[in-house]
Amino acid sequence: MYTFDTIVAPATASGTASINIIRISGKDAVNIGEKIFTPKIAKNRLSQNPRKLIYGHIVHNEKIIDEVMACYMNAPHTFTCEDVVEINCHGGKKSVEEIISIILTSGARLAENGEFTKRAFLNGRIDLSQAESVIDIINAKSSKAFENAQKQLQGKLSKRIFDIDNTLKKSLAQITVAIDFPEEDVPEVTRQELTSDLDYCIENLQKLEKTYKDGKIISDGINIAIIGRPNVGKSSLLNELLEENRAIVTDIAGTTRDIIQESLSINGLCVNLVDTAGIRDTSDVVEKIGVERSISSIENADIILLMLDNSTEISNDDINLIEKLQQKQYIVLINKSDLDSKLNINHIPDFIDKNNIMNISAEKKEGIEQLKEKIYSMAITYEDENTNSVMLTNSRHYALIQNTISSLKDAKTAILDDVELDIVETDYKDALQYLGEITGESVSESLLDTIFSQFCIGK
Ligand code: GDP
Ligand code: ZN
Question: Is the same domain home to 145 and 227?
């Protein structure tokens, strides 16, 4: 275990709250705690009562600063694996500021961003991918993102990585032995064993690699644009999906002049929904800006909902919009299914997949649940056989997994081609280096700094 100096930071968000927590970690934590905290009952000294919440006061120069509850948690079973003192003081900026300044004059220094979590990693309580999941837990925008980050914190990603890591280390040992005794030919069975272990590792890494697309959607949410001519019912659908009246619904064409953006959850998935201004040729300057924004929101969308009006025939404006769906994920919605149909479905261009056409009535709330299901199944495409398994959400991990796969494929080709084992050995070492950057086993100080600087202070 490393020994570090003693650090302090507010653990709760700044601003007013009912309680704020100040965290001190390091070898002097309990000394500093006892210096500034006076228990109400004298015998309840922090150092004598680990893991108990004790009532008392922060006292400085014989003056009571705040009424608090304090707790001393002794190493090593703490968040950082170090001695930790936590002080629950009154919410409010002043209370936190004053107590922290007293702690600073008593020998601690202000923690850097993510420094508590960094210590938990450096002291071996969690690996790097677990430490990184702490940010994802804090930033989770949906229940699915939260759940996935929790799995990563529990070590479900690391477990899969360590399994591959161990297999590769075993193979590397066999290769090293073979290199050390070059006079003996590498037995055929060793080559077979090496390639079958490589296949196992590549297959498992590829499974993980495939989870990234969904994982990214789960962590960032999915962008959906609703497009269509004015008056087809886009705003009505948005309201229906949001179950509230956010967008202005009118029967005057061109009312939604700017784009409206809202987020909602579909089965725990965060959906960022954009209701675009009706797209049509217009001379109105303000409406024109809205139309341009609509077009750019199409470009940014992961899925486009293109809306047609069942009560009118398909127009040239509709066709122009439909053309924009090429190369995109889309659903064509024929809205106002409650009205008499004047729309000839055969006029929808052929490239549109019939499975992606749905009839709905935004006004009568028909087809909305089916639409939500369709959106979800389009967004989440990769189904692992083990639905409980963790998904890759971090672009750094994704790149490292891809690099690992490519090194292992090189190793396999080299083995099959009877290439010198020294060369094969390099591929294995590269692969292990990449995996080590996920678990933190082989990671540079500067990379650690970059990773932990993304944390907030106090974490
Ligand atoms: P937008 O311009 O595409 O956003 O269209 P709106 O949502 O503002 O709706 C235009 C008009 O169509 C309004 O009068 C709505 O009440 C009406 N409308 C929307 N959806 C339906 C529907 O499913 N059935 C019927 N009958 N009318 C609808
Ligand atoms: Zn509208």
Answer: no
Residues whose beta carbon lies within 6 Å of some atom of ligand 1:
228, 230-236, 249-251, 256, 278, 335-336, 338-339, 361-364
Distance CA 308, CA 305 (A): 10
250 Cα nearest atom in ligand 1: 8
The rounded Å distance from CA 292 to ligand 1 centre is: 22
Residue with tokens 């987020």: 263
Would you give the DSSP letter of residue 140?
A: -
Nearest to 306 by CA among 278, 267, 341: 278
Q: Examine residue 447 and state whether it is found in any structural domain, yes or no.
A: no
Would you say the pTM of this structure is higher than 0.90?
no
pLDDT at 259 over 60: yes
Last residue of a domain, one of 379, 399, 423: 379
**Tens of pLDDT, residues 318-347:** 999 999 899 999 999 999 999 999 999 999
Domain count for the chain, please give it: 3
Give the residue, out of 363, 364, 366, with the most ligand 1 atoms within 8 A of its beta carbon, to mutate for a pocket test.
363
Are the C-beta atoms of residues 134 and 153 closer than 8 Å to each other?
A: yes
Which residues neighbour 407 within 8 Å (Cβ) at sequence distance 6 or greater?
427, 428, 430, 431, 434
133 marked among binding-site residues = no
- Domain range for 37 is 7-127
Q: From the CA of 27, how far away is ligand 1's center (Å)? A: 66
Residues 405 and 287 in one domain: no
User: Is residue 248 in a domain?
Assistant: yes
Same domain, 256 and 237: yes
Q: Kindly give the distance from the C-alpha atom of residue 198 to the centroid of ligand 1, in angstroms, as a whole number.
A: 58
Chain-wide mean pLDDT for the chain? 89
d(CA 401, CA 408): 11
**CATH number (domain holding residue 48):** 3.30.1360.120
The answer to whether 55 touches 38, Cβ cutoff 8 Å, is no
